[in-house]
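FAQ

Q: What does a record look like?
A: Structure on top, sequence underneath. For example:
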């Protein structure tokens, strides 16, 4: 599972669609509204964002990160991967099958 906040729902949807189309993720979920409170360049900030959650495999992480960095509007996008320590085996198999780059 890869966690990526985006400035809005449209951005999250566009990034998610590109990564699924390219086979770098099997699925993209867009959570349209969240509030982020964080410290940036010494200032406390609060912004409305959308959350992009991707299901992929570890082998895709490096390329996925590079693609996101190239298209994400933030100078320093949060791209954080969390391992799946369990789950429905059939679903996890579906993620593996759906996370194959289209050129392989």
């Amino acid at each position: 599972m890869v966690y990526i906040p985006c400035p809005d729902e449209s951005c999250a949807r566009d990034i998610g669609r590109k990564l699924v189309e390219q086979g770098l993720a099997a699925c993209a979920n867009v959570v349209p509204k969240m509030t982020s409170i964080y410290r940036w360049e010494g200032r406390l900030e609060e912004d409305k964002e959308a959350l992009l959650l991707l299901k992929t495999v570890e082998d895709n992480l490096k390329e996925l990160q590079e693609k996101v960095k190239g298209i994400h509007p933030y100078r320093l996008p949060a791209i954080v991967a969390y391992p799946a320590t369990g789950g429905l085996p059939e679903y996890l198999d579906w993620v593996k099958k759906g996370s194959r780059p289209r050129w392989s």
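Q: Is there anything notable about this one?
A: Residues 9-21 form the longest helix (13 residues).
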